[in-house]
Amino acid sequence: MVSNDTTISSLAEHDGPRKDRSAYEIEIVEDAKIAPAVFTEAQERHLVRKLDLWIVPLMMVTYMLQSYDKGILSAASQFNINADLGLTVVIGHEADGTPITNNQRYSNASMIFYVGYVVGTYPMSYLAQRFSVSKIISGATFLWGAVVMSTAGCTNYAGIIVNRLVLGVLESAVAPTFTVLVTFWWTREEQGLRTGLWYCCVGVATAISPLINYGLGQIRGPLASWKPMFLVLGAVTTLWSAALFFCLPDSPMETKGLTESERELAIQRLNRNKAGTINHTFNKHQFFEAFRDYKLYSCTILILLTGVPSGAIGTFGTIVINGFGFSHFESLALTCPIGGLTALSILIVSYVSRKFANSRYLCIAICGIISIVGTVICWVGPRNNRGLLFAGIFLIAVQVASGGLAVSLAASNIAGHTKKATTSATTFVGYCIGNIIGPLIFGASPGPLYRAGFIGSFVCLCAVVAIAAATYVLLRRENAKRDRMHGAPIDHVSVDEELTDVQNPDFRYVL
Description:
The chain has 511 residues and is an all-alpha fold. It has one domain (43-497): Growth Hormone, Chain: A (Up-down Bundle). Helices cover 73% and strands 2% of the residues. It has helices at residues 4-9, 11-15, 22-32, 41-76, 81-85, 104-130, 133-150, 157-171, 174-185, 188-199, 201-217, 227-247, 260-272, 284-291, 294-323, 328-355, 360-380, 386-396, 400-412, 417-443, 451-486; strands at 89-93, 99-102. It has a two-stranded antiparallel sheet with strand order 1-2. Helix 4 (41-76) packs antiparallel against helix 12 (227-247), helix 9 (174-185) packs across helix 19 and helix 15 (294-323) packs antiparallel against helix 18 (386-396). The longest helix is centred in the first third of the chain and has 36 residues, at 41-76. It is globular, with a radius of gyration of 24 Å. The relative contact order is 0.15.
């Protein structure tokens, strides 16, 4: 293993021409003492298949439950939670008698979740780096399940605000940690698809939850019709936390779920990423380097901007569709295909970006353009054509895939454990801010038109396309510059060196 002093003293050589680094390369080989074992492609395929069937389902179910639990409020709005807790106020009527509503309190109850998410993101990321990932994730999952169950005990506006704030703090443990966890097990070429698999479960939750929620809302008893869905789903989440506690691995170095040969192969694959070591030490230099790196801001702003329309539709989707003239049941049922399209679009772009190298930013731009069309339809479309208006909502859902790709880029284009964890946490702060802005815009815009909300979504998606194009150009130039200065990359950087992508001249950025 190369010492930290050797790594630091060698950075100057790393910055020079490749021919000047031969002494350093020999030092690496001599210090390694034992040549790495050689594995066949069949052995690697077997390991990847094992990881896909073991870790990916755990992440998918967890993220689906997270998305489901935080979104129950939207479904509960169709079962009188707004009236019971004073979240919606009628401020007038249209000429045809349609109520004009003020949904600011409902918007605040949705938005405060993401305030809690922002508050919890950095502490949770720090805890996940310092301690066992499986214990942090399973503990947070158990606690947020209990908080979801406690929602049924809320009786007023203040109660639901506190409840949702705490829920956001606890759920902030999942997504940033999963983003980093993917880099522990899969190569950079494989990460986009695996990130897409767990990230697409936001769509899966949207697709399966409406009819389940409707069924739970039909339970007749002493409780208000919206309360059983919180009690049942919260209980399911607390039970799932046990599966995470016993089954979710931390890293190839620490898990007991691999044989010795599989562990060595997994570590060699980690070396291939040139993304730095897995450790539990906070690196202050990497922390500050992350905030000096424009890639952090590019990914964060992309996720923020895509979060505005997705947060708005996630919160106001059933209400907006109901305003098109659909019944309460139809409004719930029509969110199913929206969730299906969300999941499908994430999977398609994840597969395309895996199949065609350096196509991630292109896919981000294409998804953004498709959703821009949807915002225009909902903004200026005829109000008497509810089918066309719903089609607009359907198209807006595609942009969630852009956010998913930005999440994968935040992991694949950053090296160094602390820098990667910091970047991942920051991108999800952007996600939270976007999900705060979206409901606020829609909440401040009178229903059932919500014109300001659709205009705001249109502007954000136009910015997504522009930023994706600009970042693609900048990273392409950086890759070309490194090729000119250092030549083609070589595989001599060890996973134990803990170099960042800026320090490592063999690192090439995914486009």
